[in-house]
Amino acid sequence: MSLNIIDLIKGQLGSAFVSQAASQLGESEAGVSKAISGLLPVIVGGLANNSDNPSVLDSVSNASSQGILGNLFDSTSNNSFISGLLTSVFGDKLSGIINSIATYAGISNNSSSSLLNLVTGATVGSVGQYAADHNLDKSGISSLLNDQKGIVSTLLPAGLSLASLNVGDWAKGYKFDNDQDEIKPVTHEEPKVEVTRSVADSGTFPDRSTSSEGGSIWKWLLPLLLLIAASYFLWKQCNKKETTTTTTVMGDSLNVSNDSSSMPTDSNTTATVTKIDENIDLNGTPLKGYKGGMEDQMITFLKTDGYKNAANDDALKTKWYDFDHVNFKIGSADVLEAGSEGQLQNLVAILKAFPDAKIKIGGYTDKTGDEAKNKKLSADRANYIKDWLGKQGVGAQVIAADGYGSEFAKVDASASNDERAVDRKMSVRFAK
Fold first, then answer.
1. How many helices and strands, by DSSP H and E, does the chain display?
2. Per-residue pLDDT tens for 310-336?
3. Distance between CA atoms of 154 and 164, rounded to whole angstroms?
4. β-sheet bridge partners, residue 362
5. What is the pLDDT of residues 102-129, one digit of tens each?
6. How many CB atoms lie within 10 A of CB 181?
7. Which of 260, 356, 259 is nearest to 314 (CA)?
8. Rounded to whole angstroms, what are the CA distances from 100 to 135, 207, 220?
9. Closest of 9, 224, 18, 249 to residue 115, by C-alpha
């Protein structure tokens, strides 16, 4: 029996991996786990289809020397080795895969892209290590990858098919849809079967009928098709309801003079149930962001002269805008997670479009850990963003950066890591 690559990867993508990835990406563990379940068949299928691709074989054979498995989170972030392999395997289909997985798992495109790198690193690293341990040459690696074609379909989670991911022509050699019975590669036309009366009694063949039973198939097939159509319609309606819940509650009751006490409570922040990147209009220039997210709210506020009409800083201090994508590596104040700079660049564009506007940066942590260290870490992160914005030419518009630690955290320290994620954030507010 041929080796299943998934057995090699299991040790790399366990609950600890999911938890760490969720924490670093700011996503739920359920969303990360769902994304991984969708990415695995994509990556394994892509490698299998490229089992005779010299550049792919070179990447796998050299993977063990790259030390990828030693620290997946550091070694795969912005790694040219991984990005080059993905381009070689998927080419211009990469963005479509990232978007499809993000939609399927309910996570952001940035998180989907990061997970694609991580799961690819775990897969290639594990196969490369196996090849090194068993002295497999490139021919042996090619055979191992080619053997995976028979198991790709078994990896598909419910509700996802590789055909829907638009992965290209390589899907033609497999039956990817979950409602198909065959798993083996389709290489020839099925032989014709002579149907006898005894076979017909046990089941009706869709592609042939008898004069006495020709219409019988539609007696059960038509209701089945109608049932499937109705189920699909209900599913789409449920999804539509989930994606339209965006609520902003204004009017904070905090009435204080100190900035550090003016951090809005949960009732002041924007709760977005589903995160979908869209084009946010900035005076004719599209910015990629969430509908109802930071960019959308800030631009709307500026366009309606909310900033211009604010009498003083007190009128602005209770409204903060949380970054949707900006995250730091755990314990770090100067290393951003992959994909974070995109939203910072959006902020630069907004400030340049409204040169009279000024802002303040705030950093926050959850209730776990030493509070003095939390306060310092959050302050260092806020100042890092302030300095970064200064290097982009908008430093004069950033008048302050403060760290509040867990002062405004709402979730108890005993709660799960996923529940505490809402308190770990970077935010920005307008100031005068």
1. 15, 8
2. 999 999 999 999 998 898 887 789 988
3. 16
4. 402, 427
5. 888 899 988 888 888 888 888 888 888 8
6. 6
7. 259
8. 37, 34, 33
9. 18
